[in-house]
Amino acid sequence: MSEIERDRALRLAPGCRLSAAEGQEDVLLMPESAMRLNGPARAILALCDGARTLEGIVDELKRMYPTADAARIETDTIDLIGQLCDRGVLEYA
Question: Which stretch of DSSP H or E encloses residue 92?
Answer without folding.
Answer: strand 90-92
